[in-house]
Write a structure and sequence with these properties.
Strand content of chain B: 5-15%
CATH class of chain A: Alpha Beta
Order of helices and strands of chain A: EHEEHHEHEEEHEEEEEH
Strand order of the largest sheet of chain A: 2-1-3-4-12-11-10
Distance between the termini of chain B: 41 Å
Number of strands of chain B: 9
Helix content of chain B: 40-55%
Oligomer: heterodimer
Strand order of the largest sheet of chain B: 8-7-6-5-4-3-2-9
Number of helices of chain A: 6
Order of helices and strands of chain B: EHEHEHHEHEEHEHHHEHEHHH
């Protein structure tokens, strides 16, 4: 099992540390050739405009879209925006997931928050019962899911913060900033 | 469980999202858009870039809130703004505007020559400058959730940023080889909080994200700082005081992502036009240097 982490900008080293913690081989991806022989890819948190522009500049858009047709990809925060079909803004998107996202939906940094989420599927998959503590930073919201995409988790008021479409995963929050490895384990199960 | 805002993990976390990126000084909405278009991961809103602050002289203060708000409206990336060292009311004003990060900066004229702001009192995160590990850990002790080298702002001379980054990184390496019984003396000699010294030894890195700043003017300068071990780069006067800001900004963004790839660095360094006119720090009178501000 070898997972790549898109390392154009953002907290890619935090994802790599989490993957190593659960015994998974992890490598940095900056160019199309780095996608060869990977079992899955994580697109980290960061600035989605920066990640998008660098992906265009280094001809990663088509290879990433192609990779996502046959492999697992997980986007956290900026990565979730980048995976979406519609982000209500003019910026490069992979359009792999049939979700509509709203950037900076919760306000500015002073409104960034942490909270507990009950994510049934995650608990079932990892055989655990305690809630998932989620860190939201200038987070996007998943406004709506379409087609084959489905809701994985929502806040108490119903706003969607995690979605899945086959082997593609999008979370508004940052599992890589916690010590809880369950989301990374869940993603590995999708990549297997 | 209740929802919490303004926590330490939230403050540190935003800086983690900026890693591997370039934060650019901008003085108006138009420049902010150019920076965002070039791939900046955040912008620093200020009335005058450090090179102009140097040229103009006088007291440099927090920028006009109106100008900061216009920049916040113009871009979707995080917006930072500077307050004077020790000027906690300027910081309160910036927090109320909703800026995403405050830089308690030596580039502005200090308001307090003995004390920095107690940054734990704020919900908004702070970044502070440092010249060495003691200064970095004192600022973190006060609540800074991100650190940058001071360098020597507004000069286009990278020598001081290199000096400060080497000092910090060298101290981190030194701590790795020290016995636990030596840490209190290290804390005393460096004027650093003991608990944070222990944490740096254990982590093998700064407990918060650590950027370079002060004198970065070219893609090669930015990659140099990255190879020395910083997490990302601030570029102040270096972009909008150069001949072709949009092109230079995009080139520096690429140089930070591909800092280990000399062929990419060579490609992005081609035909960038005039770099900012530099000032040689070694020939500057002591009184003109900004890095000595703060303690």
């Amino acid at each position: 099992m070898k997972i790549g982490v898109l390392a154009l900008q953002g907290d890619f080293s935090e994802h790599i540390s989490m993957l190593k913690k659960i015994g998974v081989d992890a490598v940095e991806v900056r160019l199309p050739k780095h996608l060869d022989d990977l079992d899955g890819l994580i697109i980290p948190g960061g600035e989605s405009t920066t990640i998008g522009k660098l992906s265009v500049a280094y001809d990663l858009m088509a290879p990433l879209k192609q990779f996502g047709k046959s492999h697992a990809i997980w986007g956290t925060c900026a990565g979730a925006i980048f995976l979406s079909k519609n982000a209500n803004s003019e910026q490069p998107l992979l359009g792999l997931m049939d979700i509509k996202v709203q950037r900076n939906a919760f306000g500015r940094q002073v409104d960034s928050f942490e909270t507990d989420l009950e994510i049934d599927e995650l608990m079932k998959a990892t055989g655990t019962e305690h809630p998932y503590h989620a860190i939201f930073i200038r987070a996007p919201l998943i406004e709506s899911v379409h087609g084959k995409a489905r809701i994985l988790s929502a806040l108490e008021d119903g706003r969607i913060v995690a979605a899945q479409e086959g082997r593609l995963l999008a979370t508004s929050f940052h599992p890589e900033l916690t010590n809880d490895t369950r989301f990374h384990e869940y993603f590995i199960s999708l990549a297997s | 469980m209740e929802t919490k805002t303004g926590t330490w993990i939230e403050k540190k976390g935003l800086a983690q999202m900026l890693k591997g990126g370039v934060i650019m000084d901008v003085v108006n909405a138009e420049q902010a858009k150019i920076a965002e278009e070039a791939g900046a991961c955040a912008v620093m809103a200020l009335e005058r870039v450090p090179a102009d602050i140097r040229a103009d002289g006088g007291v440099a203060r927090m920028s006009d809130p109106d100008m900061i708000l216009k920049i916040m409206e113009a871009v979707s990336i995080p917006v930072m703004a500077k307050c004077r060292i020790g000027h906690f009311v300027e910081a309160q004003i910036l927090e109320s505007l909703g800026v995403d990060y405050i830089d308690e900066s030596e580039v502005l004229t200090p308001a307090d020559e003995e004390h920095h702001i107690l940054k734990h009192n704020f919900k908004v995160p702070f970044v502070c400058g440092c010249r060495n590990i003691g200064e970095a850990l004192r600022r973190i002790g006060e609540g800074a959730a991100m650190i940058r080298t001071k360098g020597e702002a507004g000069t286009g001379d990278v020598v001081e940023a290199v000096r400060h980054a080497r000092s910090v990184m060298g101290s981190i390496r030194q701590l790795q080889t020290m016995g636990d019984e030596e840490l209190m003396t290290f804390a005393k000699n460096n004027g650093a909080p003991y608990e944070l010294v222990k944490e740096v030894k254990q982590l093998g890195r700064m407990p918060v994200v650590n950027f370079a700043a002060g004198g970065v003017a070219t893609p090669a300068d930015a990659a140099l700082m990255m190879q020395l071990g910083v997490d990302g780069v601030f570029v102040g006067s270096g972009i909008f005081k150069s001949g072709d800001p949009a092109k230079r900004a995009a080139a520096i963004v690429k140089s930070v992502t591909f800092y280990q790839d000399a062929s990419v660095l060579a490609e992005v360094s081609r035909n960038l036009g005039e770099a900012m006119v530099g000032r040689n720090v070694s020939q500057m009178p002591e009184g003109e240097k900004m890095a000595g501000r703060g303690w």
